[in-house]
Amino acid sequence: MADLLTHSIPRSVWHGWGDPAEAHRLPDHAWAYLTERVGAGRLDHPHRPVAIENVVLPETTLAEPVRAALEAVVGTDHVRDDRAARVEHAGGKSFADLVRIRRGDGSHAPDAVVYPGTPAEVQQVLQICAEHRVAVVPFGGGTSVVGGVSALRGPFASVITLDLRRLAAMTALDPVSKVATFQAGMRGPEVEAALRPFGLTLGHYPQSHQEATIGGYVATRSAGQASTGYGRIDEIVLGARLATPEGEMVVGGRSPASAAGPDLLDLVVGSEGALGVITEATLQVAAFPAAKRHGTWAFPGFDAAVDALRELAQDLGHGTIPDVCRLSDPDETEVSVTMAGPAGKALTAYLKARRVSTPALAVFVWEGADRGELRRRARRCETVLRRHGAVKLPAAVARTWERGRFSGPYLRDELLDHEVLAETLETATTWADLRTAHGAVRAALHGAFEAAGTPAVVQCHVSHVYPAGASLYFTCIARCAEDPVAQWFAAKSAASAAILASRATITHHHAIGTDHARFLGEEVGTLGLRLLAAAKATLDPRGVLNPGKLIAASDQGAEVESRG
Q1: Are the C-beta atoms of residues 117 and 78 closer than 8 Å to each other?
Q2: What is the SS3 assignment for 445?
Q3: pLDDT of residue 2
């Protein structure tokens, strides 16, 4: 069992993010800024998480015959109900998840954690759980921020978490077609390490890259930071292998395109473990970029910046637009510049001298095989950027962002130590509605935090750009209220209402989980909900897969009843 233990708590600390060795502290000037803006300063005695032995766990209710059946499939060492395994799988990495577990609330922990080693073992585990009416929660990197991996029991007496970390191999590679097949438990760095000797990359780098898995990418319709260049996961996935209580379903993967009826792969992508457990995925990969070019620009305001990005996406398009497009609104720009300390002050003075007093900062990264072509791409973009009033800044700013792009979650852990709330939400909409949505969501968040007596810093960036529109990713920082979980959910509820009223999507890449389940009907309609429930009733008739996620139990129950 040593292999499991070394790949468990140290890889994803139970009360926070990733590898604790990579954590770093906020500088003094950053704390001074937060004290001034939201009244939240560094505490003399930080509130550390309770010790793991003091986390309160429910008594395990997994019946011995069920455990024995599971052990017969995966082996005795791969069915665990020890404290470390249960606590690590007691939730994802949302603000609410972290607050609960840091305070010792392990109520969302599973009764046991099962570690299958093959797709066939996954299939057998699901059949055992369906037969004995045990809920199953699939678990990859555990990075969900919307309640997607909480071990909810639903109507069942027991729940297990199905940890897929042992399914961690690249099982096929076609370098001519640039197509590769990966098992679902491979984490982002492992995927890149497997492809690098062949001169290839997946090019998928969400902020959760270091911990998230292939199965999680596909199950949540993930979008990486370079999605403008490499595509979202739903654009590059070609096929998937899905284990369900009713049998295995293999979809796609035979050809790059097909007209053989509705694309059933789309039923798997974004299914969040509610329809089955993804055990393998076949994806389009790309040549590893031999060259990169970085660019940093400051616009005279958010409106001008949005107009520039729209022109890049619509008029220049793929092949010219940067592979990474990240635009911060003036609020996020202010935070970023302040966090940069003396370098930020120099940048502010430089921009003021050029009459840019409320800048919107953009960082760009072009990737490819030829430095000359990257230079030509950047020059074509530069013409557009200057036309919209942008001022060119040192490319080192973009390089600094790239070096630290996975560090944000570690800072959230330190903020929590000092009773500071930091959480995110995101959406996407058309260019025509983007400004309206940005203003409405921003106002809703400010209003909710002010109503709680905890004014917030609300910042936003665009990080995924399409011809028809773009994403909006909001980050909120505020002093924790007495009940910080209720504080955040009140703010998120207000923001969600503003998102829907602005005709934006309830989620661009964080998936549905439990947080967004009540809003799904607004996007897919009543018939859409019934269609999803019918699919679940076909693949998971007893409803044991990830209860409470994506498909409400009432919707599934109504569908089962209507079918007799």
Answers
A1: yes
A2: helix
A3: 36
Question: Could you give the C-alpha distances from 530 to 522, 536, 546, in angstroms and in order?
Answer: 13, 10, 18
SS3 (DSSP) at 281:
strand
Rounded to whole angstroms, the Cα distance separating 77 from 85 reads 12
Closest CA to 457 of 98, 40, 43, 95: 40
State how far the Cα of 161 lies from the Cα of 545, in Å rounded to an integer.
Answer: 10
CA 255 remoteness from chain centre: 28
Do 481 and 427 touch, CB atoms closer than 8 A? no
List the Cα angle 65/54/484 in 5-degree steps: 110
Q: Which residue in 440, 543, 457, 548 sits closest to 494, CA to CA?
A: 440
Q: How many CA atoms lie within 13 A of 230 on its CB side?
A: 27
Residue 427's SS3 state is: strand
Q: Please give the Cα distance from 72 to 124 (Å, whole number).
A: 10
Query: Model confidence over 493-514: pLDDT tens digits?
Result: 999 999 999 999 999 999 999 9
Q: Give the model confidence (pLDDT) of 522-560 as tens digits.
A: 999 999 999 999 999 999 999 999 999 998 655 555 444
Taking a C-beta distance cutoff of 8 angstroms, is the pair 136, 167 a contact? no
526 contact partners, CB below 8 Å, separation of at least 6:
none
Nearest 10 degrees: Cα torsion 128, 133, 134, 136: 80
Coil, strand or helix at 280: strand
**Of 215, 218, 224, 231, the residue nearest 270 (C-alpha):** 218
So what's the pLDDT on residue 165? 97
Residues of the chain with pLDDT under 70: 1-12, 552-564
| Cross-sheet strand order for the sheet of 360-368 | 391-393, 291-299, 360-368, 324-328, 456-462, 469-479, 420-430
Please count the residues of the chain.
564
Identify the burial level of 135 via C-beta atoms within 10 angstroms of its C-beta, where 0-12 means exposed, 13-18 middle and 19 or more buried: buried
Strands 135-139 and 159-163, sheet pairing: parallel
Measured distance CA(477)–CA(211) in Å, rounded: 24
Residue 260 CA to residue 503 CA, distance in Å, equals: 32
Answer for the pair 559, 537: CB distance below 8 angstroms, yes or no: yes
Name the region of 332 (left: φ>0; alpha: ψ -120 to 50; beta: rest).
alpha
